[in-house]
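User: Batch of two.

Assistant: Item 1 of 2:
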Amino acid sequence: MSDVKANAEALVPKFKFERQLNQDQAGRRTTLLGTIDSSPALLILERAPFPSSTDYLSSAPLTLRTLKNLGANDIYHWYMASSGGSSSSTNSNDPEKDHDEQTDFSDLKINLIYPCTPKHIAKYSRQLVRYVTETPALYQLHVRPYMQAQREAGRLNWVFNIIEGRKEVEDVIYRTPFGQDADDEGFLLLPDLNWDRKTLDALHLLGLVERRDLWSLRDLKKKHVPFLRHMKRKFVEATTQVYPDIEEDQLKLYVHYQPTYYHFHIHIVHVQLEAGATQAVGKAVGLDSIIETLEVMEGDGEAGMEKLTMCYTLGEESDLWKDVFGPLKKKKAKEQQRQQQQQQKEEGEKLKK
C-alpha cells in the first residue's frame, strides 16, 4: 500500500504544463493539460476547504503575506490577500517584476464587517432554512412594516453613500447624471463587493436605483416596465463596453426576494458564475420574468407585484422567521390541533348516540 501511495505522489511533480483547458467555480478550480513521461495527462487543481481547527482560524488573519484593500464603505471593507508562498517559482532577470507578480498573486478574497451587529452574526451563522409562502395580505400586514422598520434603522447608509457620490465613486462603471433625471429614473452600476474584479467568469455587478420609493420587487408596477427595460439595456451595454470579452448573451440579471437590504437593486452576473444559494429558486427572480409578469398583469399602471403570492427561503435566525413566519406556523399548528381535537370529540359523541 505504501508503494502505491508513493508512486501516485511521485506523478504530480513530473507533470509538464501545456495549456489550461478550463477554470470554473468562480476561479477556484482549474483544469490543466500536460504530459507525464511524454504521455498526455489532465491535472485538476481545486482549492481545499478551510481547516476548522481553532489554531488555524485564530492565526489566519495574522499570517497573510499580502493584503490589498479594494474598497470601504461605512462598516463594510473588502480586500484581496495572499496566504501562501510565491506565485511563481521562475525568477526573471528583473527582481522588481518578480516582486510585483508575487505581490499581485492573491488566493483569498476577504470581506470585513466592522463593527458588526447581532443581525450580521445571525445572517452569516450556519442555520436551518425554511421555504415560506408570503401572500399579498401577509405582505401588507407583517412584511411591509418589517421592511419599513429596517429602512428606518439606518442600515442603508452605505447605499446612500454610493448614490450620493460620497463613497466608491472611482468604482462606478456607469451612472445617469445624479439628480438630473426629471422622471426620478436615475441609476448606477458598480462591482459587487463579493467579486474579485479580475475573474470574468465570476463577474458580479450591482445596479442601484437612485429613487427611494422602490424598496423591493414588491414595489414594481406595470408603469415601471419602460424604466426597467431602459435600465436593463444600459446595464448590459455598460458591462459589455467595460469588459469587451463578455458578450450580451453571457449576462443574466436578477433580483433577490427577500433582499438583504430594502433599496431596490439588480444583480448582473456572468452566466458561468456557479449558481449557489444566492441564485437558487426561493431567492433569485429573473429581471426578464418580472418584466413579463408585469406586462401581462391585468389592470392599469398601478397594478403590480404586491398583488402576487411569493415563495422564498428564510433562515431560522432571520428576524422575518422569528417575528413573522415562525409564530404564524406555531399558531397554525395549534389551530389544526384544536380542530382535530374538536373533530375527534364530535366523532366520539356520535358513537355514544
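Item 2 of 2:
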Amino acid sequence: MEFDNTSSRLAELNHAQALRNIPIVVYLGLVGITGCIGNSLVFYIYASIYTKLNSRIFLLFLAAIDWSTCVIDIPLEIITVLNEYNFQDTLLCKFSRTGNALTTLYAGGVLLAIAVDRYLKICRPLGFQISNRTAKLLCIVLFFVTFLLIWPEFVMNGLKTVVIKGEGLNGTECSIEDAYQKSAYPTVFKFLIFILFTATLSIMIFMYCLIGRKVRFFVLKNERRGSQSKSNGSLDSTENLYDVSNIKRLQRTENSNAAAMNEYVHVSKSNSKDNVYTTYDSNDSIDDFKSMDSQASEIGAIERKRPFKIQLSTTQLDQIKRKRTLARNTTYLMFIVTSSFIIAGLPYFILIILNHATDHFVLNMNPGGRVVYGFFLRSYFLGATVNPIIYSIFDRRFRHTCRGLARNLKLRICRTEQLDV
C-alpha cells in the first residue's frame, strides 16, 4: 500500500514537472519541425542543383547531421523532458545521450574541416586543396573517429536516482547512471571531451582570423592600387600570378571550387582587340614561379631581370572579380555558420561548468529554476535549425533557388486544382 502511494505521488510530481516543462517541449518541437524542413531543403538544393560547388560536400554532411538531430535526437530529448522524475527506459536514455554527443561533436568536426578548406583556398591557393573526393573521405573518417570518442556515453548513461526537493521521494532521470556516480571515469571523460571541443573551436577561430587578415590585405592592396588598375585595365600582379599558376589545377580538378579567393583563369593566346596587357616585375614573388614549368609554354619564359606581359581579356578580368567576390561571400557565410554553432552551444558549456563547480547546483533549484536551467541546457539544439535560415539570408543563390522551387510548387498546385475542376 505504501509503495502504491509512493508511486502515485511520484507520478503526480512527474506530471506537474512535465507541465512546467511545456515551454521546453514547445521550443524543441519548433526547432525539430523547422530544422527538418529547412535541412531537407538544403540537402535537396546542394545535392541536385549546386553540383559543381566544392564546399557542397561539407554542407551536405552538415545538413545530414542537423536533419538527424531534428528527426532522432530531439524526439528522444522530448521524452526525457516529459519524464524528468520518472524515467524508466535505460536503453532509450543511452541512445538519447549518445546521439546528442555524436551529432554535436561531429558537427564541430565538419565545421573544422570547412575552416581548413577555406583557409587553404584563401591563404594557400598554390598548395594542396581539398577535392570533392577528399572531402567525402574526410567527413566519413570524422564520423568514425567521433563515434570512437563518444562510445563511453553509451556505457555510462542510464537511470540516475534523484532526490525530489521538499518531498522526501526518490525519482529516476536520464543521466550518468548510479553505478558510475562515485567513479572518476565520467568526470575524466567529460573533461577530455570539453578540452577536445574547446581546442576545435579555438582552431576554427584562429583559422578564420588568418582568413580575415588575408582578405583585409587584398582589400587594402586593391584600394591602394585601384587607380593604377583602372588606368591600365589590369589586376594586381600578385593576384594575377596566383590566377595564372592555377591554370593546370583547373584542368586537373573536375569539380573545382568556384568560390576560391584566387580563382583560375585561362590565358588568352589571341591578339584580339579586347586584350589588355598586365606588366609584372620579375623581382615580385619570384619563388612562386619555381613550380610553374608546365605553364612556361603558355606564359612565356620567366626572366629575373626583365618584366613580361600576360594577355587577359576584359571578360576574363570581370570573371575573376566576380569569382573573388563570390569567394569572400562564401567564406563569410561559413564564418557565420560557425559562429552560430558556437553561440548556440555557449549556454550549455557555461551551465556544465557551473554544475561541476558548484555543489548541488541543480538540486537547490526550485521547479521554475529547473525549467530555466533545462531550457538553456538544450540551447545547442538551436544550431540544428539556424543554418537554413543563414543560407536564405546571406546566400543569394540559395535564396533565389528557394523562390524558384516555391513558384514551381505553386504552379503545380494550381494546375492540379484546375484539373480537378
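Residues 232-322 form one domain.
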